[in-house]
Design a protein that fits this description.
The chain is α/β, with parallel strands linked by helices. The protein has helices spanning 3-20, 30-35, 48-58, 81-89, 155-172, 177-192, 194-204, 220-226, 243-254, 277-285, 306-321, and strands at 36-37, 40-45, 63-66, 92-95, 114-116, 133-135, 141-143, 212-214, 230-232, 268-272, 289-293. It folds into two domains: 30-123 and 144-191, Nitrogenase molybdenum iron protein domain (Rossmann fold, 3-Layer(aba) Sandwich); 194-321, 3-Layer(aba) Sandwich (Rossmann fold). The longest helix is centred in the N-terminal third of the chain and has 18 residues, at 3-20.
Length: 323
């Protein structure tokens, strides 16, 4: 072989070795870093109740994370490109449905990995015929979709949602299917026990259906289970009520059909627990019995479980009507 040809072949062989060898500082692909977190498959959820249900179901077998910041409602959230990328690369995306994620139609998400956990009870969703335009923060006036979204306030719907979480997590983690189903059964039993309290409340007010009002329509799945008709207002979570809000409440109370109440009865007013003490005080002075309701949209500062938060809501209702 000619020296020049031998030299050229040597160069080609050397280049092949360099190109073919893996580099010691090579980083994992983007898919690997996103779909696996701390060595676990990533499940992205879009609500605090879903986060608690999923974490309880999968335990340490997956990384369940809520992509929406805890101080923001999924109704008002707009995902950034980085948020969208996290969802796009997750192994499983669980959404609440019932109109709780209006932004999802503006983001390209993998349909094969996104699951609507309200899929089992579409026929039980409650529409809001008078959804109004209002403003939260700097994004300007907007309207929330005309569906009541706090489905989990009804233990039966929460159990149905839990089942959807269990089924989809079982498909993602087939090797953990038995432990997932065991965790589902345990949590479903805890949620089902809340129906005893609901029956107690219904028995307590069986002779007198209370006139029930609220600051928003979010409570309708719960009031439907209690057999109550809810008259709702449309109040934002502001530091204090506007003059229009105050007039709205006084008009609602004055239009109350008093013939359905005993002489000593007062309207029952369900108030988002995040409202100010001044707002609660105004409702009381206007003649209402206030029951603060934890909508479970944000994480509990005391790390209280979802079933216990729901139980506390029912206990506050029972205390109010049993006086």
């Amino acid at each position: 072989m000619f020296p020049r040809l031998r030299f050229q072949l040597s160069i080609l062989i050397l280049l092949g070795i360099v190109i073919g060898c893996p580099q010691s500082n090579q980083t994992p692909s983007e898919t690997e870093t996103q779909t696996v977190h701390n060595g676990l498959p990533r499940i992205v959820v879009t609500s605090q109740p879903l986060l608690q249900l999923t974490q309880t179901i999968v335990g340490d077998a997956a990384d369940a994370t809520m992509v929406v910041p805890d101080d923001t409602s999924p109704l008002d959230w707009s995902p950034t490109s980085a948020d969208a990328e996290i969802m796009q690369q997750a192994r499983l995306i669980l959404i609440n449905g019932a109109g709780y994620e209006p932004w999802k139609d503006r983001v390209s998400l993998p349909g094969s990995r996104m699951r609507d956990t309200a899929a089992g009870y579409y026929d039980q969703l409650i529409r809001i015929p008078d959804a109004v335009s209002h403003q939260h923060g700097p994004d300007g006036p907007h309207s929330h979709p005309g569906t009541v979204w706090a489905t989990w306030l009804d233990p039966e719907l929460c159990i149905a949602q839990l089942h959807q979480v269990s089924v989809n997590c079982g498909r993602l983690l087939p090797e953990r299917k038995q432990s997932i189903e065991t965790a589902e059964a345990r949590l479903a039993a805890e949620l089902n026990s809340l129906n005893v309290m609901i029956d107690t409340i219904k028995a307590t007010d069986s002779d007198e259906i209370p006139a029930v009002f609220s600051d928003a329509p979010h409570y309708q799945y719960l009031t439907r289970r209690l057999g109550w008709t809810l008259s709702y207002l449309h109040w934002d979570l502001a530091g204090s009520l506007s003059d229009a809000n105050r007039r709205e409440l006084l008009d609602a109370f004055s239009a109350n059909p008093t013939d359905t109440l005993t002489q000593n009865s007062r309207p029952l007013f369900l108030l988002d627990s995040r409202h100010s003490a001044d707002t609660e005080d105004f409702v009381r002075k206007s003649g209402g019995t206030v029951v603060r309701i934890d909508l479970c949209e944000a994480a509990s500062p005391e790390s209280t479980s979802l079933p216990n938060r729901m139980k506390q809501n029912l206990q506050r209702i029972l205390d109010a009507i049993d006086k």
